[in-house]
Amino acid sequence: MLRAETPPALTAELTVRHINNTLPEPPAARNGFFSMAKIFLQKYKYATSGLRRRALLAQDKLDREKEPAVSANEAEAKASPEIVKRKRGRPPGRRAASLPVPAEDEALPGQGQDSGKSVGAVLNGIRILRFLSRAPAPVSLTHIVQELDMNTSTCFNILRTLAQEDYVRFDPGRKLYSIGLGVMELARGAATVASDVNVVRPIMERIAREHNVTVTLWRRISEDRMMLVLEALGTGNMRIKMSVGQRLPLLIGAAGRLMAAHSGLSSDALKAQFASIRWDHPLSFDAFMAEVEEAAGRGWALDNGNYALGTASVAVRILNEHGGPLMACTATMFINQFDPIRAERLAADLAEVSRALTPALPHL
Fold it and tell me: Does 92 reside within a domain?
């Protein structure tokens, strides 16, 4: 059988002609290419958006399962920047039951149990109010942020909230903030408590005068701090002076031994607080706890120069209705004035302060 062979030149010509016959014209080819590309991009966009949507839904589901805590800054940053005053009291639409009410047997902060974690937004609000109350003139947001080293957004939103409640006054023309008249309502309540405390001032002044000592009344204000609320000075040429409002570690001095005895804190918590205190004449934690137990048994405590060299102090306890340490009344003297017999007489006289405050305890 004979096979006819096609010359190479003719084969090449036939191949080119076949290709030209099967492909569309150049303009049609371009249009087809762009149409296919457009369809591909649309499908790709749809596919990626679907994947992204499914990924977001999956992440949202994980977040709901984990229920992460929202920081104060993130929560307040969502608020509107407008300042609109409203009547004081519970915000409209909010139920009273939404606020947790402690049970009758549940201890409140400062009543013998852990007061829990501090709320950053509340602490920042208190810092702002204190700063504005001491400022000699209205100040700007920038000035407050710089002085308090606070986040600008957080500071602004807290100021806006306080302005709504009239605790801060905002001057929209000059963009300045000052303390508001709303704090006077709080001051009236504090003045009522102060008047209850002041009933013991004559007793404290008499003890200070008769024994030539400095008599102070300390109130527990947190899990690890107490504050001086009242003071009476002796009549000698050399006197020990303290400032009303100053704060000290809860376990410091004679008052600290009584606070520790009735604080309800665990041994580990007491040890951690004890380790953070700087004593002029240090003592071991075991020795401190032995003195705490002795003070709890006899009702009064003694610090013989451990807190401040050259001084000694005697303190009696003032307990609240829950049996926790509410206050302590202390007599502080120079070390050369101290002797054990005098310490017992001072403790007996200071107990009169505790008895005089008993009727006012529900208001303190």
Answer: no
